[in-house]
Design brief:
CATH superfamily of the largest domain: Spore Coat Polysaccharide Biosynthesis Protein SpsA, Chain A
Order of helices and strands: EHEHHHHEEEEEHEEEHEHHEEHE
Shape: elongated
Strand content: 15-25%
Distance between the termini: 24 Å
Oligomer: single chain
CATH topology of the largest domain: Spore Coat Polysaccharide Biosynthesis Protein SpsA, Chain A
Number of domains: 3
Structural class: alpha/beta
Number of helices: 10
Strand order of the largest sheet: 3-6-7-8-9
Largest sheet: 5 strands, mixed
Radius of gyration: 24 Å
Length: 313
Amino acid sequence: MTLSIIIPAYNEKDTIVQSVQSVLRVNFPYPYEVIIVDDGSTDGTREILKTLINADKDADQRGLLFEELTYKIRGCVFRVYNKLGSGHKENVYQKALEEELNNSGLNFEKEKSIEVFYRDRNVGIYRPDFIIDGKVILELKVLPFMGKNEKRQIWTYLKGSKYKLALLVNFGSSNLQIKRIVYDTARKGNIRVNPRSNQRKSAIRIIYKKKNEGKGAALRRGFEKATGDIIAIHDADLEYDPQDLPQLIQPILKGQKIIRVNPRTNPRKSAPVKVVYGSRFLGDYNPEKHKLHYAGNELIAFFISFAISHYHY
């Protein structure tokens, strides 16, 4: 069984990073893909997506190295950029990012001295801006353009040290740039992420629509590209918790049966569950605190019940 999770997004620059991270933190017991459909965003959401998740460039033969950790780091970087924008000096971004890393609970070392070796001999010292969790080098730049020389320099430092992964961040260009640089003899070359492949438990794809056509159109586009046996929808505004998704699709996985009742002829037929809807009114929800919201949903459900057949477990 495979699962496709579709995330429609329109002007969600403040929540899109956290939303994707929350999905990736779910421990699904089966392979899944995440399809993000940007519905013509104009607030910078698509630029964030292009930088945050570039699966074709970031993936290697054994999957993303330190995947969850790097997503958390990128989230911190984007929060700093969203608040400060471009145009500041490097030490301003460094101090702001230090504060953000602390708030996120990430362990880090600032400007730690790293010995660089050549043929087992110490030939110099390198001091990156941050080392996160003893695994990832985080190097900051404020440049109009970040080219091959900056990336090659970081790659050389990785080659001469014990570290395998660096994130090179440039706050100085018109759009935030984050480059993922890997040096690992066990991970040679890059490959394209194939969401149909069983080599990875998860895969991420992004669809960019040229203009906004509404959530329904975005979902239909996602449905067209989905390859999973089951499709789930998760909004990008953090209104729902993706940790509920495994429980939500259980009736489908278990082949649970429902009784279909036709109000006109009143026959009862048993049929397998094909669609499951989440409800904000179940569990710990208290309708007394949201009376108008609750009444509106009840009214809509009442009229819909007359337009279509009733379903009861």
